[in-house]
Specification:
Elements lengths: L5 E5 L4 E6 L6 E5 L6 H10 L3 E6 L11 H8 L2 E5 L9 E3 L4 E4 L3 E7 L8 E5 L2 E5 L2 E2 L2 E2 L9 H11 L8 E4 L9 E2 H7 L8 H9 L9 H8 L9
Parallel strand pairs: 3-4, 4-5, 5-6, 10-13
Antiparallel strand pairs: 1-2, 2-3, 7-8, 8-9, 9-10, 11-12, 13-14
This protein binds fe (ii) ion.
Length: 233
């Protein structure tokens, strides 16, 4: 059965947060929560009568601080993160192909999709894929910091994500163009950076972007590697 996640947005960093819950289930999973929306997210869970089982990260973000650590404290949820992201305090370090279960037999599969960062991971649940900053709607995440690699991102998208069924819904980690959901089939045909582009042309394109350094990177990455909690605290 097709089920959409609940999609929530942070206007400051253009970050999407997702709540995953199946009908009739009393458990939920949160993906990529943002620190300043801790209370909003808790209110959603309370309103829906959901107990938070896991809080997931797609990578160690450079543009906002996660609320994963605080959510864990407030709800008793476990933190599950990609193993290659240096997020040491998380209970679960996920590798490619690992499956997380919650609620009444709900399964989330981890797909290691490096390129934006070396550890970046996408999550597949009920015909939905949560792509973090690997694949965006009509775009992709930058590959010029945090051990990013345009070469690796090309493989992650064209060989792993584009290998999912065409009707898989794509829920990105960010959106800057006021779009909220796409599909694998659509992105295969129309993604401005990746559709019908050779590896060489993609690597050249990514190398020529010359984006400014993320304003919060030096604060956000170390904080996120501690689940958003102060170090030593
Ligand atoms: Fe990112």
């Amino acid at each position: 059965m097709m089920i959409n996640p609940i999609q929530l947005f942070d206007t400051e960093s253009s970050t999407y947060t997702y709540i995953l819950a199946a009908p009739g289930s009393t458990e939920a999973v949160l993906i990529d929560p943002v620190e300043r929306h801790l209370e909003r997210d808790l209110l959603h869970l309370e309103r829906l009568g959901l107990k938070l089982a896991y809080v997931l990260e797609t990578h160690a973000h450079a543009d906002h601080v996660t609320s994963a650590g605080k959510l864990r404290e407030r709800t008793g949820a476990k933190a599950a993160v990609p193993s290659g992201c240096g997020i040491a305090p998380a209970e679960l370090q996920l590798k490619d192909g690992d499956v997380l279960t919650f609620g009444n037999g709900e399964r989330i599969e981890a797909l290691h999709t490096p390129g934006h960062t070396a550890g970046s991971t996408s999550y597949v649940w009920r015909g939905n894929v949560f792509t973090g900053d690997t694949l965006l709607i009509d775009g992709c995440g930058r590959t010029d910091f945090q051990s990013g690699s345009a070469d690796a991102l090309y493989d992650s998208v064209t060989r792993k994500l584009f290998a999912l069924p065409d009707d898989t819904r794509v829920w990105p980690g960010h959106d800057y163009k006021e779009q909220s959901v796409s599909t694998i089939g659509w992105e295969k045909r129309h993604n401005a950076r990746l559709a019908n582009r050779s590896r060489e042309a993609f690597i050249q394109l990514m190398g020529e972007l010359k984006l400014p350094k993320p304003r919060l990177i030096d604060v956000a990455v170390p904080a996120n590697q501690n689940l958003g909690l102060p170090h030593g605290g």
